[in-house]
Amino acid sequence: MTERAGRSRTEEDATPAIAADPVSSLNPVIPEATVARLPVYFRAVVAERQAGTITISSDRLAELAGVNAAKVRKDLSFLGTYGIRGVGYDVDRLMAEMGHQLGMYQNWPCVIVGAGNLGAALANYLSGDERGFSVVAIVDADPTKWGSHIGSVEVHADDDLPRLVPSYDIAIGIITTPPAVAQSVADRLVSAGVGSILNFAPVVLTVPDGVLLRNVDLALELQVLSFYQGRTREDPESA
Amino acid sequence: MTERAGRSRTEEDATPAIAADPVSSLNPVIPEATVARLPVYFRAVVAERQAGTITISSDRLAELAGVNAAKVRKDLSFLGTYGIRGVGYDVDRLMAEMGHQLGMYQNWPCVIVGAGNLGAALANYLSGDERGFSVVAIVDADPTKWGSHIGSVEVHADDDLPRLVPSYDIAIGIITTPPAVAQSVADRLVSAGVGSILNFAPVVLTVPDGVLLRNVDLALELQVLSFYQGRTREDPESA
DNA sequence: TAGATTGTTAATCGATTAACAATC
DNA sequence: TAGATTGTTAATCGATTAACAATC
């Protein structure tokens, strides 16, 4: 999944969408496909570091990340030159650089809109240690949920968004509402001042230029699986 | 998000991954990128049909799906020729064909491994009406959860997998466990006879040829968002 | 030096899209 | 016929990967 300005989509992407050109002209342009692999490399490098590894070859990293070694070298070359020929990449340096690029050493305040199962799952998921994000508020349209807590985060009224966003300096809005209200939620997040939106509602959203948008569609992945199942397996009971 | 054999998705692509060539040589080969867009088109066509639309142009469908019209026509051409020049596509026929390809009129039995927040969210999400899937069992390693229910689905002991899978003719395993145990869960799902795996654990899994694997990495999408945030916004409080 | 491994080039592959003839 | 819209071609664009010179 990935998309672009107000329209496209993942395509991702299984892939997600991006609104407006997010890449500063001051930085080298890193291809979207490479950016999407950085978190996977990062995870592998962190694990190797904890295991005491000092240097890692592109071959080994490729194995851990499940990709081609040439792709690893190409991807890492976008980050600059941290490899040593004949030796490999310095694990500490690699981890530091990738963590920096991914904003792992920052702490973006997020709001989750929709205190349902998925919202709760994400709130718990993200409250785990250092990922570069912290969920500072959850909002919901259901008054019976207001004042309750998910983990340590309070559930607020959705009308509180215009106050919450500036007050907590919230940068990212995460939409886990039903699809019918997702566009209006996105509009309100944008007016409230959020700069990026991660949308879990299965609907195509439109946001103004300058607002980053990525989409995750849980049902889509299953439907793609189902497509291939239908081509390789016997039919199950018909519905 | 999306990928290929033995690796992961997002890993592999931010797109999800597929293990082994899943496309029967008897059917026309539909590109992965096209398959990933079919659910989006399908959703739009279903909505238009409910609104009473009889025919739809590639232009309109493109607008609804957030993609280029030429891409829509190209994608639909893989399904066969259902369009009428000068008129558009017959909505009923389009919906039927896409629904068929996506297995929407079938009912694949699924098992969710991991009765945590995410597992519960998915169980509820998928128990919604006709999506071509039904969650027939949830398993968890925690004995205190055994016998409880999420929605109407019972939580079983994870050791029950070898019995549950054949008994319910389960085709798809959904992994929502912590990453540390995900590979062993995948191995056990495969031995139990599952043909496809949808993995939500942030780890690269390996499965035998012939087993379909797709990965969804919730944190990855946020990390990609964070990457672009870091390039366009001011830094938040450092962590 | 000999062996290992990077960084980069260039070939290849696949996906996107503009354009337009076909045709309803 | 005139207008609309598909289906398909071909150009373009971008991503992947094999190969290998550079070099530790």
Automatic annotation (TrEMBL), chains A, B:
Its main location: cytoplasm. PANTHER family: REDOX-SENSING TRANSCRIPTIONAL REPRESSOR REX, REDOX-SENSING TRANSCRIPTIONAL REPRESSOR REX 1. Belongs to the transcriptional regulatory Rex family. Modulates transcription in response to changes in cellular NADH/NAD(+) redox state. This is Redox-sensing transcriptional repressor Rex. Residues 40-79 bind DNA. Keywords: Cytoplasm, DNA-binding, NAD, Repressor, Transcription, Transcription regulation. Residues 103-204 form the CoA-binding domain. One of its GO terms (molecular function) is DNA binding. It comes from the Bacteria. One of its GO terms (cellular component) is cytoplasm.
